[in-house]
Each structure stands twice: as C-alpha cells, then as structure tokens.
Predict the structure.
Amino acid sequence: MIRLLPWWVFLLFALFFGSIAVSFTQDYLADSSALDEALASPPDTILLSELPDAPDHPPFSEFAVRDFAGYYVGVVDTGRSGRSFLVIESFSEPPIFVAFTAATFQEDRFEEEAALMEQDWENRVVRGVLTNSPSYRADLIEFLSEQDASIPQRTFLMAEFLEGDREEALAEMVSDDRIAVIATWAITALLVLVTVLKFRGWRKRRAAKQASTDV
C-alpha cells in the first residue's frame, strides 16, 4: 500500500502531523511555564465550600481544600470500563461536591485517602486540579443521587486528584504533554523522510522515462 501511494500524499500527511506537533509543542511549553509558576506559589488552603467562589485559581486550576462533611468512594459503571471515584462534600448549606475519578483499578488510592480523612477529619487537606466535565459526569451524578437525592441540584465540580508528593504529581501532568510532543514530531520526521525518498524515486523514474522518450 505504501509503495503505491505517490510522494505528495506523504507530504500532506507530514504537513498534517507537523501542524499537530506544533500545537502540542505550544501546549507543552505553556504547561511547562505554568508548572514552574505553580511550584513557586502553592495555592492557599481554603474551605471546600469556598472553592466555587474563589476569585481566581493558580496555574492548572490547582486547589487545596479542607473542612469536609462527608465523602463517597466506589466504582461507577460508565457504560465503558467503569470509573473509580472519590466525592467529597462541604459543610455549607447548600453543600457542594467535588468528584475525583480515575481508572477502576485505582480505587485503592481513593480508599486510602478516605481512611486518612477519617483519621484527621478537621485538618486533612485534599489537593486537586479542576477539570472540564468529562462524558461520565452524568453517570456519576445519577449513581450518587441514589444515595443523596439532593446531589443533582447542587454544585458538582470535577477534578483530578493530586496524590502523594505535589511536585511529582504536577510534573506528571506535564510529562503526558512531553510524550505527545515527542511522538508527533517523530511521526512527522518519519513522514518527511518517506516523502523525500518517494520524491527521489519519482524523479529518477521520470528522468528515465524522459531519456527513453528522447532516444
């Protein structure tokens, strides 16, 4: 199949992946800058109930909250592979909820966090990064509403859990961008190489054909 495709097709592929690589590189540089800023200025610890009304959020929309009225830990069937979750609830009235989710097999880390919250209920700080609402948000709210009917009408924020060392957890977020940058530039370079080789072969064939025509 590759042999049959003309060189200009690979050139188009190279331009396409090159544009993606440039976009990923820009995202990576922006996130790297945000990482440096975040590491230099950790967010202040606030009450969980204050999170939705915080005037601004540090880089990555990172937060550190305390003062929990309750929590939910478990696994929800999202119609695909399922998700493990930790949902924390504020003392405020009405309460607000923050949901951390992860792959099903990572449920243990949420159970460990819940145990730590039990040990030091008043002083335990939970760190996270606010995220855009994923497709399984509605599944999680529907599942939890069976235990607390008020949840669908309350503020329900989605977040990524920062586990263990804060610096390592934030750096891990940027490392995914770095892998994407390396992969897309590698693919682009490979496509450029194939384009050059195919173009040279095409020129040789055209020159040979022209020479035979001139004879």
